[in-house]
Write a structure and sequence with these properties.
There is one protein chain. This protein is of the alpha+beta class. It has helices at residues 30-44, 65-77; strands at 12-18, 48-55. The protein has a two-stranded parallel sheet. It is flat, with a radius of gyration of 15 Å.
Length: 79
Amino acid sequence: MARKPNQSALRFVIYTRKSTESADRQVASLGAQLEVVKEIAARNGYRVVKTFKESASAHKTNNRPKFDEMVKMIKNSFN
């Protein structure tokens, strides 16, 4: 039987993103998204170690530098 990880030892990151292409396509602002996710984290006792916010079009290839930074940070934490 697999053991559940100790939740207090887990570290979490928050990533919020809003497309700059069309204001009507995504209702929640970056601030509103962050507020909701922080509330969920607090309610569940998640230890958030970093927050990434991105506002850019995803139609262009490799146009998510904050997402890429987050993935790199997570990968490096396993080395």
